[in-house]
C-alpha cells in the first residue's frame, strides 16, 4: 500500500492506495498535528510500503511526521516546490517559497489540462495560473471561508456554511448575524475568484480551464460563473505525477481526475469584465 498525505494548515488528509491495482482503499482526515497515532489517526503502517507527502503546516509538523514514518516505512517521498517540474516553470521569484500544495495542484492541473487555473479552497483560498506551454505565472492568496469568518469575531464561528447550500441562497442579504456573515464571506470569496480568473485570462489573452480543490471546493463551485471542474484529489495527483509508483501512475493516469472543462471564449470573458466595469 502507498500512503499519501496532504497536510494543510487545518486538516491533514490521508489516503491509502493499492500499489498493484492503483485503487484507493481508504481515506480520512484529522486536525493537523505534530504527533500521529498509526492505527488510529493514520492507517497501520505495517501495510504501507511507501509514503508521499505534501505539507504546508509548520516545519515541526513535517519533521515529526517524517521522523515517525522513516522509522517504519522503507520509502518516504516529500514533495518540494522547485524551479521547474514536469514541463512547468515555477513563477515565484524564490520558487521554494511557493506553497507546495499550490505547486502540486498546478502540476496536476497542467498534466490534466495543459494551461489551467488551479484553485485550492482550504484554510486559505489560492488561485494559480499555468499558461499553455507550462509557464506558471504565480497567483493569489486570500483567507478561506473559515478564516474570514473567524476574523470577524462575531461569535458565529461554529455555524459553518452548509456545504449543500445553493449559490442563490448564499448571495441574498442575510437577515441574522450568522447569515449576514456567511453570505458576506461567500460573496467575497466567489467574487474574488471570478474576477481574478477573468482579469488574468484577459491579460494573457487565453481562456483557461479552471480546476477546484480543497475542503470548500464544492460550495465555492456553485458561485463560479465559468465552466470548471471540482477535483478533490488534485494535490494527491501532483504527488502521483512527481513520484509515480504504480503502473497506472507511470502511464500518466491521475486518480480521480475529472473531465477537462472547456473554457468559454475569450470574447465572452472580456464581455463579462466590460459589463461588470460598467455597473
Ligand atoms: N468537515 C470539515 N471539517 C473541517 N473543515 C471543513 C470541513 N468541511 C469543510 N471544511 C472547510 O474546509 C477547510 C479546510 O479545507 P482543507 O482543504 O482541508 O484545508 P487545509 O488544506 O488548509 O487544511 C476549512 O477551513 C473549512 O472551511
Ligand atoms: C497559502 C497557503 C497557506 C495555503 O495553505 P492551505 O490553505 O492549503 O492550508 C500555503 O500554500 C502556504 O503556506 N504557502 C506558502 C506561501 C506562498 O505560497 O506564497
Ligand atoms: K489552500
Automatic annotation (TrEMBL):
* CDD domains given in the database record: ASKHA_NBD_PanK-III
The record's listing under PANTHER family reads: TYPE III PANTOTHENATE KINASE
Coiled-coil stretches = none
What name has this protein been given in UniProt?
A: Type III pantothenate kinase
Q: Which InterPro entries match?
A: ATPase_NBD, Type_III_PanK
Keywords in alphabetical order, please: ATP-binding, Coenzyme A biosynthesis, Cytoplasm, Kinase, Metal-binding, Nucleotide-binding, Potassium, Transferase
Name the residues that bind K(+).
120
Instruction: Outline what the protein does.
Output: Catalyzes the phosphorylation of pantothenate (Pan), the first step in CoA biosynthesis.
Task: Provide the gene name from the record.
Answer: coaX
Q: Where is the active site?
A: 101
User: Can you say where in the cell this protein is located?
Assistant: Cytoplasm
Q: What organism does the record attribute this protein to?
A: Halomonas flagellata
Reactions catalysed according to its record: (R)-pantothenate + ATP = (R)-4'-phosphopantothenate + ADP + H(+)
Q: Name one Pfam family in it.
A: Pan_kinase
Assembly, in brief, is: Homodimer.
Pathway per the UniProt entry: Cofactor biosynthesis; coenzyme A biosynthesis; CoA from (R)-pantothenate: step 1/5
Family the UniProt entry places it in: Belongs to the type III pantothenate kinase family.
Keyword ATP-binding in annotation: yes
Write down how the cofactor binds this protein.
A monovalent cation. Ammonium or potassium.
